[in-house]
UniProtKB/TrEMBL annotation:
Name of the protein: ATP-dependent RNA helicase
Species this chain originates from: Citrus sinensis (Sweet orange)
Pfam families, A to Z: DEAD, Helicase_C
Helicase ATP-binding domain: residues covered: 50-243
Keywords: ATP-binding, Helicase, Hydrolase, Nucleotide-binding, RNA-binding
Length: 512
């Protein structure tokens, strides 16, 4: 009863007490949200954002990951386009442009868009991104794409070199995961794109159409706020409505800046068009149902501890899905090879037992050095699995929605505190409970203080209790009172097995 009560409270915190139709969305689109995406009711972020976006105002959304931000901007855009009379067609070119930081997020947004447009066949979705065939993209752009999802570099390439790319009717520009776009170094590309398209200019949908001469509407979505995001907002947004920002975090001096608010009349004229958000520390939004822990591990025991925790999580949960983050592609490849092949005897009696895989689950890897097709296959396969492990660099840390991921492990701590937020954001989505675990070496403990500056507090993971839960056959009873991680019998046993396995693999390779 207690667990059910907590879940009901979490659902109440995430979801609004209204319906999608009450927000002004067409009944057919509401049906698509329910049938195709499983949304029975809007999240609070969606309930706040959709009416404002429908009104035509510029919007800045700062909300926790996993709160339905993608639907919050796609639904109003589709609602507008389906209402145009006469109907739009491919020859009208691109009306909405969604900019995202990574290829994986590009595919994910396109997939959601494709589902929502199932009954609006005359609205054509599409995407362009690095790693894809330019000629095929040019052909699709020539035919016409109503709503285009793109990565910045490839979009800029087409704006400069694809003359058949029609964007004169562009009404919406959306910056999804804006902070990540800028962190990846796309700032100059974004400014060039805005120079080409015009940051706030007026679009015309064509003669005889009742929606001609509509004003450009820009939307910016970000889980964290910093000076770079502030600059992008200043050059792209005009008197935006701010969603998800606490009043206490706004500038005290409002004499030069007047912000829109959810309570204000959307038709109200704003006297001062500038946009500024001062922030000495970035604003972090994390789901309330996310349980955050850390584990302090000496360097020499890190691998054995990681494997122990993974084994404990998979052995105690039937349908477990985890993501482990590493700082480099090489680290992902090494651990992927190890976990895919490492076998051992569960009773530490190799002569009497048939060895088996240490982790009995499907293991995947994802990083930027993989071929585009391999990344896409991995992305799709991990999403459909019920019990699986994904080893990844930060290529999977932003915006990607992996269903039912219950735990995030950061084996290598993120360089920036902001990246910590986006890594843990792969779990605890849409009201579901989630766990995160941060590995820290003794010399890295100050990292916790950095997180606390942003209001993020972690509790210690009960590592010794987990290690004690593993059976050790033929061992003397343990003296728990003075036990340390590196001297724990289970860790020592596992390290010996790992060393033997790695030596065997090296010898096998040398003999080939």
């Amino acid at each position: 009863m207690i667990k059910m009560s907590k879940k009901k409270e979490t659902v109440k915190e995430i979801f609004a007490s209204c319906s999608f139709s009450s927000l002004g969305l067409h009944s057919t689109l509401c049906d698509q949200l329910r049938e195709r995406l499983g949304f029975e009711a809007p999240t609070k972020v969606q309930a706040q954002a959709i009416p404002v976006i429908l009104s035509g105002r510029h919007v800045l959304v700062n909300a926790a990951t996993g709160t339905g931000k993608t639907v919050a901007y796609l639904a109003p855009i589709i609602n507008h386009l389906q209402s145009y009379s006469p109907r739009i067609d491919r020859s009208s070119g691109t009306f909405a442009l969604v900019l995202v930081p990574t290829r994986e997020l590009c595919l994910q947004v396109y997939e959601i868009l494709h589902k929502l447009l199932h009954r609006f066949h005359w609205i054509v979705p599409g995407y362009v991104m690095g790693g894809e065939n330019r000629s095929k993209e040019k052909a699709r752009l020539r035919k016409g794409i109503s709503i285009l999802v793109a990565t910045p570099g490839r979009l800029l390439d087409h704006l400069k070199h694809t003359s058949s790319f029609l964007h004169t009717n562009l009404r919406w520009i959306i910056f999804d995961e804006a902070d990540r776009i800028l962190e990846l170094g796309f700032g100059k590309e974004i400014e060039e794109i805005l120079d080409i398209l015009g940051s706030r200019n007026i679009g015309s949908i064509g003669e005889g159409n009742e929606v001609s001469n509509v004003k450009r509407q820009n939307l910016l979505l970000s889980a964290t706020l910093n000076e770079k995001v502030n600059h992008l907002a200043k050059i792209s947004l005009e008197t935006p409505v701010l969603i998800g920002l606490d009043e206490k975090k706004l500038p005290e001096d409002k004499s030069h800046v007047r912000f829109g608010s959810l309570e204000s009349d959307v038709k109200e004229e704003v006297e001062h068009p500038s946009t500024t958000m001062r922030s000495t520390t970035e604003d972090f939004k994390l789901p309330a149902q996310l349980v955050q822990r850390y584990v302090k591990v000496p360097c020499g025991s890190r691998l054995a501890v990681l494997l122990s925790i993974l084994k404990h999580l998979f052995d105690t949960e039937v349908s477990q899905k985890l993501v482990v983050f590493f700082s480099t592609c090489d680290a992902v490849d090494f651990h992927y090879s190890l976990l895919s092949e490492f076998q051992w005897s569960p009773h530490s009696q190799p002569d009497m037992e048939l060895k088996q895989l240490f982790l009995r689950c499907k293991t995947f890897r994802l990083h930027g050095n993989m071929k585009q097709e391999d990344r896409r296959t991995t992305f799709g396969a991990f999403k459909t699995e019920k019990k699986a492990l994904l080893l990844s660099t930060d290529v999977a840390a932003r915006g990607l929605d992996f269903p039912k991921v219950k735990c995030i492990i950061q084996y290598d701590s993120a360089g920036e505190a902001t990246e910590y937020v986006h890594r843990v954001g792969r779990t605890a989505r849409l009201g579901e409970r989630g766990d995160s675990l941060l590995f820290l070496q003794p010399v890295e403990m100050d990292y916790l203080q950095d997180l606390e500056k942003h209001g993020v507090s972690l509790t210690e993971y009960p590592l010794l209790k987990v290690l004690d839960s593993f059976p050790l056959y033929g061992q003397k009873p343990r003296v728990k009172k003075f036990l340390t991680t590196e001297s724990h019998p289970w860790i020592l046993s596992l390290q010996n097995a790992l060393e033997s396995f790695i030596i065997h693999e090296i010898l096998s390779c040398s003999q080939k």
